[in-house]
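can u do me a favor
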């Protein structure tokens, strides 16, 4: 049917308007759906320096332990101690704290007979909430490291209780889903929008347990199994939280394992030989990755390289940040007290927003 001439213009206008509206809706939807979460630190021009807390008690900060002891962050003494620690961390000038959560599985998680995760205990959310409250008080942000590689190492028995030995959670899709749904879901539902959470780190140094990593004699997990676990867990977190997701790679070379794992930024650890006197960072642009890169651990002891040199190399070579090891760990690579003046001086010389 041919329309009268006088109706053509209004119809054309109507069609054009509908097309424009449809395009606008699409643009809005794309912007909303693809809107990235808050950056891990901030853009490179506002490079920040962080510190590995990394625990008050390894595996005992979030939830009750397998020995039935709860000494987590929400307890009075722990809160008092961490408040004091965070005050010192903030005074040095750090903005980000990296903190381990479930570690080797000795606390916080409930396991089913088939090796899956049936839930978290009644203290976990309170402990994470207390940690976030303390971070907010001292204007810090936390990278929560969900699992340590010891989670999947061969089980070890301490004082009659088992720790570690949870590789089935990585290798079995059903058991992976149990960890995601029964442990991560309630945490993300509660804290997935907190601005005090800098990022969720799925695992610390998973490469130690993988087939392609030759350094330790251990029961290996196939590379593709670990990659699948990291990739699916990253998607699970990103669907429920605003914060970025990462992994803590053992070395710079290992970053290549995680380029297709749905991560928001890459992170590596560096412990040069104690005899090395200089640390020369590779320009991040030359690494070939399309997401930011962070130095997640560098030593503050057992090294001839000053902590400020590590930081300066990362800053000048385009990395997103650098995180010192460590505030409370007692290993040979930790002596933050000795390095704090140099780090603090560097931070003051490089205020946010200035290269």
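np, heres the sequence
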């Amino acid at each position: 049917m041919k329309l009268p001439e006088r109706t053509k213009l209004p119809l054309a206008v109507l069609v054009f308007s509908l097309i424009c509206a449809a395009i606008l809706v699409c643009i809005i939807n794309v912007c909303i759906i693809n809107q990235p979460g808050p950056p891990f630190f901030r853009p490179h021009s506002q490079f920040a320096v962080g510190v590995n807390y990394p625990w008050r008690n390894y595996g005992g900060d979030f939830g009750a332990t397998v020995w039935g002891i709860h000494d987590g962050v929400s307890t009075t003494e722990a809160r008092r101690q961490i408040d004091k620690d965070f005050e010192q961390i903030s005074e040095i000038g750090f903005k980000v704290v990296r903190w381990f959560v479930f570690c080797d599985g000795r606390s916080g998680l409930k396991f089913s007979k088939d090796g899956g995760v049936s839930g978290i205990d009644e203290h976990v959310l309170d402990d994470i909430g207390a940690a976030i409250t303390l971070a907010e008080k001292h204007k810090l942000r936390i990278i929560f490291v969900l699992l340590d590689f010891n989670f999947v190492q061969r089980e070890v028995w301490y004082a009659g209780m088992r720790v570690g030995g949870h590789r089935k959670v990585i290798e079995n899709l059903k058991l992976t889903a149990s960890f995601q749904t029964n442990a991560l879901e309630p945490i993300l539902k509660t804290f997935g929008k907190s601005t005090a959470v800098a990022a969720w780190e799925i695992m610390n140094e998973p490469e130690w347990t993988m087939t392609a990593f030759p350094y330790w004699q251990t029961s290996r997990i196939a590379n593709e199994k670990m990659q699948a676990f990291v990739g699916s867990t990253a998607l699970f977190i990103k669907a429920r939280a605003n914060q970025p997701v990462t992994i803590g790679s053992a070395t710079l070379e290992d970053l290549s394992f995680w380029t297709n794992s749905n991560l928001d930024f890459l992170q590596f650890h560096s412990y040069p030989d104690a005899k090395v006197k200089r640390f020369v960072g590779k320009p991040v642009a030359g690494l070939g990755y399309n997401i930011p890169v962070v130095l997640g651990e560098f030593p503050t002891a057992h090294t001839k390289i000053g902590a400020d040199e590590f930081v300066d190399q990362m800053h000048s070579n385009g990395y997103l940040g650098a995180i010192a090891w460590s505030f409370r760990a007692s290993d040979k690579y930790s002596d933050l007290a000795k390095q704090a003046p140099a780090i603090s001086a560097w931070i003051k010389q490089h205020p946010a927003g200035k290269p």
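The radius of gyration is 23 Å. hope that helps!!
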